[in-house]
Design goal:
With 387 residues, the chain is an alpha/beta fold. The chain contains 15 helices and eight strands. 50% of the residues are buried. The structure holds 5,6-dihydroxy-NADP and zinc ion.
Length: 387
């Protein structure tokens, strides 16, 4: 196992009917900006409960944070925060709203050009302070509710913003708030959480048994509850397990002391940016082909994944790996998420534009060892096109 530090300050408030506890969670004298998306939280009554939970505090609202939140939209919220001296941000929504709120938290006190926050990427945003924030998560998928990352879209690309100052102070995870999700968003959430685990697990072995077994546990849980959630939309226990799986997949805990890949995500972000695929759709397209092309590098963990997650015990290592890749693709497809780039209306000659974007964003040495160059990424995309 590799050396690591682990500290996660987010207070998780999990379960049904907890929104009234906002009163204890948000500082009593806070001036609050509630941020949300295109209106689902208004339509389904969540916003009303949130506002009731905030009691007599001075509250402002900012709506219209879009899926794959954009810099330009978020800068409008930054203006409100600055003009009104807001001192607490409350995100109510999915990953896009939570991520957007994190960006606002970082950008509002920032004195330089706010685009700097995007350019820093994984090196960490150059910020020394951020407005405190909390979240009410309505979509289990990204893990944003318990991590320090955000992904923001700008003309220069879809880029990560990372800082320990961006952990939510608290996140309310009420699985019953997810009952209103359309099936496509449930499926997206399952796939996103599944791939988060895989990018921290299918690398190379470092004898990290707790991390491996937790990863395997989350994967098996998602395989069980994903289809049940879709088939039984009123099943609270399935929703609860899905929600905690998604949070556990990317709150840092399974990623300590182990190598990580994130190549699927980095290529996926370009597909979203260029062609508008949903985040999870982009991952479902890239991951099976990335594994197919790079199975020699990932063989030991792919065999472990095949045996322990899919219970594939027969055959040679190669046969186990191939079957595990096939089962992963079939799992995504069974949820209704297509796994070929050609199925999303992308022209074949666009692959070169993806490569150009990866190059422009410095994504030229991906993978757990940094050995995935643009040529390999091109091969992956060629394979993913109509694999
Ligand atoms: O905008 P509203 O009206 O709220 O509708 C949303 C949106 O249209 C809807 N929705 C959310 N909760 C709902 C609901 N509809 C009905 N009932 C509910 N309870 O769902 C749609 C999609 O929402 P969005 O927030 O975009 O989805 P998701 O949670 O999948 O977030 C995706 C974003 O997160 C980023 C992605 O890149 C993408 O921008 N990611 C963030 C990460 C992080 N912070 O750690 C990691 C991930 O890998 C990912 O990159
Ligand atoms: Zn993701």
């Amino acid at each position: 196992m590799m050396n690591f530090n682990y500290q996660n300050p987010t207070h998780i408030v999990f379960g049904q009917d907890r929104l009234q506890e906002l009163d204890q969670l948000v500082p009593a004298n806070a001036k609050v900006l509630v941020l949300y998306g295109g209106g689902s939280v208004k339509k389904f009554g969540t916003l009303e409960k949130v506002l009731a939970g905030l009691g007599n505090r001075e509250v402002f609202e900012f709506s219209g944070i879009e899926p794959n939140p954009t810099f330009n939209t978020l800068m409008k919220a930054v203006e409100i925060v600055r003009a009104e001296n807001i001192d607490f941000l409350l995100a109510v929504g999915g990953g896009s709203v939570m991520d957007g709120t994190k960006f606002v938290a970082a950008a509002a006190p920032y004195e330089g050009d706010e685009v700097d926050l995007l350019k820093a990427g994984f090196a960490g945003a150059p910020i020394t302070s951020a407005i405190p924030l909390g979240t009410v998560a309505t979509l289990p998928a990204t893990g944003s509710e318990m991590n320090m990352g955000a992904v923001i879209s700008h003309d220069i690309g879809k880029l990560p913003v990372m800082s320990p100052l961006l952990y939510p102070q608290f996140s309310i995870l009420d699985p019953s708030l997810t009952f209103t999700l359309p099936p496509v968003q449930i499926a997206n959430g399952v796939v996103d959480a599944f791939v988060h685990v895989l990018e921290q697990y299918v690398t190379y072995p470092v004898d990290a048994r707790i991390q491996d077994r937790m990863a395997e546990g989350i994967l098996q849980t998602l395989i069980e509850v994903g289809p049940v959630t879709l088939a039984e939309p009123d099943n609270y226990d399935a929703r609860a397990n899905l929600m905690w799986s998604a949070t556990s997949a990317l709150n840092g805990y399974i990623g300590v002391g182990v190598p990580q890949d994130w190549g699927t995500h980095m290529i996926g972000h370009e597909l979203t940016d260029l062609f508008g695929l949903d985040h999870a759709q982009s991952l479902a397209v890239v991951l099976p082909s990335l594994w197919k092309l790079r199975k020699d590098k990932k063989r030991a963990k792919l065999v472990q994944y095949a045996e322990r997650v899919w219970d594939i015990r027969e055959g040679s290592d190669d046969e186990k790996v191939d079957l595990a890749i096939e089962k992963t693709r079939d799992f995504f497809e069974s949820l209704g998420v297509k796994t070929r780039l050609s199925q999303y209306g992308v022209e074949h000659n666009q692959i070169e534009n993806v490569i150009k974007a990866l190059e422009a964003h410095g994504m030229t040495a991906l993978s757990e060892t940094g050995d995935q160059d643009l040529n390999t990424s091109r091969e992956i995309l060629e394979d993913a096109y109509a694999a």
